[in-house]
Predict the structure of PAR14 polymerase.
Amino acid sequence: DSAESSPSVVLENVFTFKYSPNCLQMLLENISGLTLDADFTVELIPEISVAVVTFIKSIDTKEFVKKCSQDKRVREFKMTARLLELTQTIKAENLPDSISTDYLTVYFESARSGGGPVSDVQLFPSENSAIITFCDHKGNT
């Protein structure tokens, strides 16, 4: 178990019941006691039936996962929650045709962008995407 906990939680099976994104957001606000946009964001990924909740406000995400597993509605909807694993690699998509590996390296190393030292950039021009590998997991927020 790493000493540093991820600021993001993955909610699985979020599309197994019919709901609106607002319903999920309200459920998360009820569980966390926090406010969407001010304290956390939600990214829905319907292709794999998950939502990623990223906390802007510093909270104990392990405790939040525990609260989710105990929540009546979460259990009723058969959703599960787990910490998002920290990773050293990310995929950037929808990149402009003219993008270069040098530009991406400098961009993702920018402290202003929440980046860190980049060890590798693989460009995939046919997909307008790139795989960026950081020297450690702290640079991929």
Observations:
- Strands lie at 8-12, 40-45, 50-55, 80-83, 89-92, 118-124, 129-134.
- The chain has a mean pLDDT of 87.
- The chain has two domains: 8-83, 89-134.
